[in-house]
Amino acid sequence: MNSYALKIIGSSPIEAKLDDSKDYSVAFKRLGIKRVVKEPLEQDGEHKYTFVCDNLADLTVISEDKIILGKNKSNSKRIRNRAWIYSNDQGIDNEKFYNDFSSALITNFDSVVEFLRLDT
Fold first, then answer.
1. Could you report the per-residue pLDDT of 72-118, keeping only the tens digit for each?
2. How many domains does the chain have?
3. Whether residue 48 sits in one domain with residue 1
4. Residues 55 and 25 occupy one common structural domain
5. Minimal CA–CA distance to 87: which of 76, 77, 101, 108?
6. Does the predicted model carry a pTM greater than 0.90?
7. Based on the domain organization, do 80 and 31 belong to the same domain?
8. Average pLDDT, rounded, for the chain
9. 85 and 67 in one domain?
10. Residue 31 has pLDDT above 90, yes or no
11. Which residue range(s) make up the domain with 114?
């Protein structure tokens, strides 16, 4: 039987120090899959799939009755993460895609604002 695992990488700032003698629960609002690692198992044709993810939004840390909210990543980091995911899906160079995307966004800024109707 195939097996599946979730691996979360990266870090997210939080608003308070954690006590290393306590256990915490963490709730993610949005994860982006950066890659999928496929490893064959001993059984014929079976695989272990590991989904490697990055946190793309806030997270909530909970200990007993206390909730510690993580801070948002900046929009520029979120755009870079999303560009990274897209370029991997398309099989293209990450850094080149991000630079081309950023340049196109800057060059066509007024058209993007009009398209999204952000000025109304």
1. 667 787 788 788 878 888 899 988 999 999 999 999 999 999 898 87
2. 2
3. yes
4. yes
5. 101
6. no
7. no
8. 85
9. no
10. no
11. 74-120
